[in-house]
Amino acid sequence: MPAPHYDLILRGGIAVLPWGEEATDIGVRQGRIAALGVPGSAEADAVIDAHGLHVLPGLIDAHVHLREPGADHVETIATGTKAAALGGLVAVFDMPNTKPAITDAERLAWKRDHIAGRAFVDMGLYVGATKANVGMLADLELEPGVCAIKVFAGSSTGDLLVEDDASLEAVMRNGFRRIAYHSEDEYRLRARAPLFKEGDPHIRHMEWRDVEAAFLGTRRLMALARKTGRRAHILHVSTAEELDYLKDYRDVATVEVLMNHLTQVAPDVYERLEGFGVMNPPIRDRRHYDASWAAVRDGTVDVVGSDHAPHAADLKRLPWPTCPAGLTGVQTIVPVMLDHVNAGRLSLSRLADLMCAGPARVYGVVGKGRLAAGYDADFTLVDMKRRRTITNDWIASPCGWTPFDGMDVTGWPVMTVLRGRTIMREDELLGEPSGQLVRFGDTLRRAADA
Predict the structure, then answer these.
(1) 307 labelled catalytic
(2) Whose CA is closest to 64, among 318, 296, 315, 235?
(3) CA distance 103 to 137
(4) pLDDT > 70: what percent of the chain?
(5) How far apart are CA 243 and CA 255, in angstroms?
(6) Which residues, 6 or more positions from 407, have their beta carbon under 8 angstroms from its beta carbon?
(7) What pLDDT is stored for residue 154 in this prediction?
(8) Beta strands of 297-354 (E only): which ranges?
(9) Of 157-161, 286-290, 353-357, which gets the smallest average pLDDT?
(10) What is d(CA 320, CA 204) in angstroms, rounded to the nearest whole number?
(11) What distance lies between CA 163 and its chain's CA centroid?
(12) CA 113 vs CA 106, 110, 119, 123, 147: distances in Å
């Protein structure tokens, strides 16, 4: 019997499989995983020597703002996905609060077409909900490449805002897929704004957008989710109160926590970074940091993302509250989270769950999410012993900065493989952009019905 032949074999690595870590060779054909545990006699057109490395399923950042159209000077689809590939990611899900915002079929079609030949990794696209497009949401959420409808229930960057209960309920009653929410109470934010003034210390950002603003927003959303039966994904949960509360809403809610809330702590972040530590919702004190890690350990958290939201460095240096809220993160999330693994805060298997299987489960991704036969041949190869310092000059985004500049980490992504093709090796991008739209189950079903 002839030896099996593959397009690609990964040999000698420790694979992070759904059932645990295992030394196994992986065979790839036509961009998909063909076999786990291929024999030593197997042949391939290409072989990756993964000895000394861990092979994770291709990691996903399900929360990024690539700023195109409208702010090409700080980020584009090309530069943001380049950063993602360099950081060990195979896919990103891009937010709609651009200029103009992605809120209708025409703008969505433009963005889908714009990805071709520009994206280095695969992409999912959010569509923004507004009070004006409620009637279109049921159709928009089923467009190819759409990962979810995004609702800003509290104001942030851009002009998308759906803050009142009647409008929020109307959004929930148009469509059936899970909705992703920025959960802060807009009325509380407006009421508290006069308490602060230009030039106040940056830590006042945490005091303005306080725990109650976040917790009240989430309580309101959960009441409406239960009323309508519409599933919710609460993005960047940042408070101990929300994380405890959401455990009683697992029938309708899933939970995202950001890398920043697992890594940075007030007041240090504001004293040290000033405007470069300002984001929405804000980085909070040690109590909330500890609660976030407890929620990772007990399974409350479904997804970890970066909320990559670049701004020009000169704007971030402006006094608070004029300095814009948002931090870069798509290129640094994997190294930072690997450092947390080495520090014993979570396992590699849990990291794969939070950044691969979790996003796939929450958003209904087809073909990604685990190392298993038939899935896309997406791999993030990491050296868990590699020590590096994150620096601004490594950052591919045009804005040119990271809040983790100078941070020493242990654990580093050394190779990114997308559908069987190596797109990054040792900090070098390989080949031309080949990113495609991520496939989602409900959108494929619609296409089959059409």
Answers:
(1) yes
(2) 235
(3) 9
(4) 97
(5) 8
(6) 336, 339, 389, 390
(7) 75
(8) 303-305
(9) 157-161
(10) 8
(11) 24
(12) 11, 5, 11, 12, 16
Show Cβ contacts of residue 446 under 8 Å, excluding neighbours closer than 6 positions. 142
Strands 32-36 and 26-29 turn out to be antiparallel
In sequence order, what E strands does 260-378 have?
303-305
Residue pair 348/56 in contact (Cβ under 8 Å)? The answer is yes
Q: In this structure, are strands 5-11 and 43-49 parallel, antiparallel, or unpaired?
A: parallel
Q: Which pair of structure tokens corresponds to residue 252?
A: 């309708």
Identified catalytic residue from 25, 307, 378, 383 = 307
373-424: pLDDT as tens digits: 999 999 999 999 999 999 999 999 999 999 999 999 999 999 999 999 999 9
Say which residue the tokens 């041949």 belong to.
Answer: 377
- Specify the amino acid at residue 408: D
Mean pLDDT of 283-291: 98
| Res. 443 pLDDT band, cuts 50 70 90 | confident
How far is residue 221's CA from residue 249's CA, in Å, rounded to a whole number? 11
Give the whole-angstrom CA distance, residue 350 versus residue 257. Answer: 14
Contact 207, 283 (CB under 8 A): no
- Report the half-sphere exposure of 417 (CA within 13 A, side-chain side): 26
* DSSP 3-state of 370: coil
Instruction: Give the helix/strand (H/E) hosting 92.
Output: strand 89-94
End-to-end distance of the chain based on CA atoms, in angstroms?
A: 45
For residue 194, is pLDDT > 70?
yes
Strands 408-418 and 379-389: antiparallel
Closest CA to 412 of 380, 370, 369, 368: 380
Which is it for strands 32-36 and 5-11: parallel, antiparallel or unpaired? unpaired
